[in-house]
Amino acid sequence: MFQFRIGRRHTSKAPCRHKDTLPSSPLKSHASFKDSIQTKGAYMPAIVPELIEMATGRTVSTTDLLRKSLVVSERLALPYFSNWINFELNGYKENPTPEYRKLKGEIKLLTTSGRPLPPSAALMQLINRELEINITEPIHEIEISIKDREELFREINIENKKIYKTRDIQFATKHINEIEIARGNRLAATLSTKKAQGICENVRTKILDIALDLEKNGIKGNGMTFNNKEKEIARSVIITNNNGQIQISSPGSNQTQTKTVDTEKLCELVSALRKALDKDNSMSSDGRLELESELAALEAQARSPKPKWPIVNAAALSLKSILENAAGSALASAALPLLSQFL
After folding, report:
1. Is residue 216 part of a domain?
2. Number of folded domains in the chain?
3. Which helix (H) or strand (E) element contains residue 319?
4. 67 and 211: one domain?
5. Which of 20-24, 96-100, 192-196, 228-232 is the least confident region?
6. Which of 1, 15, 277, 321 could covalently link to 242 via disulfide, CB atoms 3.0 to 4.6 Å apart?
């Protein structure tokens, strides 16, 4: 606990000096001092340049960088950016993970105390050295593991065929059960702190790219707020999230802004998607919600007297990714051919 000590002013009189010999006071007058405080208080650094500085430096954690980015995203109404930030802050759990979070983990044994050990030579004859794992943890947990120099790990089900280099899986699982599991050891894919650091670096780079693009389009902010003009410009800076892959397109990018949208074709696509979606029962609830969101964006553009190509293109890219994951379904068969003209 902080303790504040209050000192009592010494009241004994000092020897009197002639006023002409008094030293000039280094303090400003009360009025000018007050003005100085007000002037300093009125100054607020622009949040977007501050974000750029935070992303390029090493003094701010990736977690704090994401929190500051969330302020920018929410106040500029950039929903895809906010969704991605929230996944990074809270973890992906059962949601699709971005490619930069899909990494090769080294297969090791976990002892009863949770300490990772290299597999025996006999076991290495049966299993692969590495296995791809999805890192779904919140970014602060990843940062803690890096700071503590601890490996992230995923326990592996020994029935997972991907871990074996031998075709005789029955023999391999029997060996693991009788030798390792009997000792209390488990199989796990571990991720080095160096690879974990790569996740943080990817996140910082994506935030830097978006902040630079906002700044390039004249969006800087005043303190923690943005004016109406900046908010209007932000609507043309399209940030999409395709399975965790943040993409940016803006008036300053190479995307062709003069490309017109064929409204008739767009209405045809929306209608085909809506009919196929009503009949399709094979999609997961998460996939259906994601598709509904993109479909709503296309419907809004189809109703608009001046549909915007960047918005239509961004929604079409996201829909393509969703439908490719549902390859073979009636929904994908109906919609994918119609999407090509908007990609």
Report:
1. yes
2. 2
3. helix 309-325
4. yes
5. 20-24
6. 321
Question: Own/partner pairs for 245-248, CB < 8 Å, 24+ apart?
Answer: 245/98, 245/99, 246/80, 246/81, 246/84, 246/206, 246/209, 246/210, 247/314, 247/317, 248/209, 248/210, 248/213
Instruction: Identify the CA nearest to 134 among candidates 88, 160, 96, 186.
Output: 96
> Is this prediction's pTM over 0.70?
no
DSSP code for 152 = E
Residue range 84-120, pLDDT digits in tens = 999 999 999 888 888 899 998 888 888 887 777 888 8
195 is in which domain, residue-wise?
43-239
String of DSSP letters for 76-121: HT-HHHHHHHHHHHH--TTSPPPGGGEEEEEEEEE-TTS-EEPPPH
Q: Taking each helix axis from N to C terminus, what angle separates 79-90 and 62-76, rounded to the nearest 10 degrees?
A: 150
State phi, psi for 187 to the nearest 5 degrees: -90, 140
Q: Which tokens is 247 given? A: 């993409």
Find the Cα–Cα–Cα–Cα dihedral 293, 294, 300, 303, rounded to 10°.
Answer: -130
Contact between 86 and 71 (Cβ < 8 Å): no
**Token duo for residue 45:** 């650094």
Assigned token pair, 323: 């439908």
